[in-house]
C-alpha cells in the first residue's frame, strides 16, 4: 500500500529542489519549495512498480531544473513515469522530462508532515527550518 506522505529531492541541469507529496487512494497531491503544486494519480502495479501521472502548476518567473526557462505567465506541465517499488525508497531515479531529465529521490516520511507542509514552504539560506508560504 502506497498511501502516505513522502519527501522528495530532485536535480537537473539548472539546479535542485525539494518538496513533499501525499497519496490517498490513488490521489497524488504535493508542493515543492518554490510553491509549484502537483496533482494527479499514483497507481501501484501488480508487480510492485508505481505508475504516476502528474500535472504540476508552475508559477511565473520560475525556471525548471530540467532546462525550461522561466516564463512570464503561470503554466502547467505533465509527467508520466513508471517509478520503482516504494518510489525507490530514497535511491536516485532518472526521469525524462523534456527538454531534459530529472534525478529524483523519494522517501516515505511521517504523515504529520503532510498537514504542516500542505500549503508550501519557504527557504532562507542561512536559516534553519521551513515555514508556510502566505
Segments where pLDDT lies below 50 for 5+ residues? none
Terminal Cα span = 33 Å
Calculate Rg over CA atoms. Answer: 14 Å
**What is the mean predicted local confidence, pLDDT?**
85
Strand content: over 45%
Give the SSE order as H and E letters. Answer: EEEEEEEEH
Overall spatial form: globular
The strands making up the biggest β-sheet line up spatially as 6-5-4-3-2-1-8-7
What's the helix count?
A: 1
Please report the total strand number as a whole number: 8
Structural class: mainly beta
Q: What can be said about the biggest beta sheet?
A: 8 strands, antiparallel
Portion in helices: under 10%
Number of domains: 1
Write the layout of secondary structure elements.
Elements: E1 4-12, E2 15-24, E3 27-32, E4 37-44, E5 50-58, E6 75-83, E7 93-97, E8 100-109, H1 112-117
Antiparallel strand pairs: 1-2, 1-8, 2-3, 3-4, 4-5, 5-6, 7-8
Key traits:
mainly beta, 8-stranded antiparallel sheet, globular, 1 helix, 134 residues
Summary?
With 134 residues, the chain is mainly beta. It has one helix spanning 112-117, and strands at residues 4-12, 15-24, 27-32, 37-44, 50-58, 75-83, 93-97, 100-109.
Task: Describe the protein.
This protein has one domain. It has 1 helix and 8 strands; from the N terminus they run E-E-E-E-E-E-E-E-H. An 8-stranded antiparallel beta sheet has the order 6-5-4-3-2-1-8-7. It starts with a strand and ends in a 17-residue tail after the last helix. With 134 residues, it is mostly beta strands.
Amino acid at each position: 500500500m502506497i498511501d502516505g506522505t513522502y519527501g522528495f529531492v530532485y536535480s537537473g541541469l539548472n539546479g535542485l529542489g525539494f518538496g513533499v507529496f501525499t497519496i490517498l487512494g490513488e490521489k497524488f497531491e504535493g508542493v515543492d519549495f518554490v510553491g509549484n503544486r502537483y496533482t494527479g494519480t499514483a497507481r501501484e502495479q501488480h508487480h510492485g512498480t508505481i505508475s504516476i501521472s502528474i500535472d504540476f502548476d508552475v508559477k511565473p518567473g520560475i525556471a525548471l531544473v530540467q532546462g525550461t526557462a522561466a516564463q512570464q505567465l503561470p503554466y502547467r506541465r505533465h509527467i508520466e513515469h513508471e517509478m520503482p517499488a516504494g518510489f525507490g525508497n530514497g535511491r536516485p531515479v532518472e526521469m525524462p522530462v523534456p527538454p531534459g531529465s530529472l534525478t529524483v529521490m523519494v522517501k516515505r516520511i511521517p504523515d504529520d508532515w503532510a498537514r504542516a507542509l500542505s500549503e508550501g514552504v519557504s527557504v532562507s539560506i542561512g536559516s534553519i527550518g521551513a515555514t508556510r508560504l502566505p
